[in-house]
Amino acid sequence: MELAKIEVKTDGGPWCEHNMPCSVCGKTVAVMDMNSGTFEPCWECQQQGWLTVRLPRWLARWFRRRRNDRLWPCARKEAS
Whole-angstrom Cα distance, residue 70 to residue 80? Predict the structure, then answer.
């Protein structure tokens, strides 16, 4: 997997060039929010209603646990 190449340019205003793919469709280039330094879905996916959110840590752990339970249902029972 190739790392994203980000080049920030400030001539005339803050903007950047990057090669980070859209996290939703993966076909076009994502949009970088220069204020927070995060990548948003491409403009087409944003028009369809997709957005990127940051989950609270407890909720992210809950989703991760649920995913692991579905992949390895016996792993939690053996650990207890």
Answer: 17
Taking a C-beta distance cutoff of 8 angstroms, is the pair 62, 69 a contact?
Answer: no
Residues found in the chain = 80
Whether 24 and 31 have beta carbons less than 8 Å apart is answered as no
Residue-wise pLDDT for 11-34, tens only, equals: 656 667 788 888 899 888 888 887
What residues are paired with 22 via a beta bridge?
none
Cross-strand pairs, 27: none
Query: Are residues 16 and 8 in contact, defined by beta-carbon separation less than 8 angstroms?
Result: yes
Q: Which residues pair with 29 in a beta bridge?
A: 21
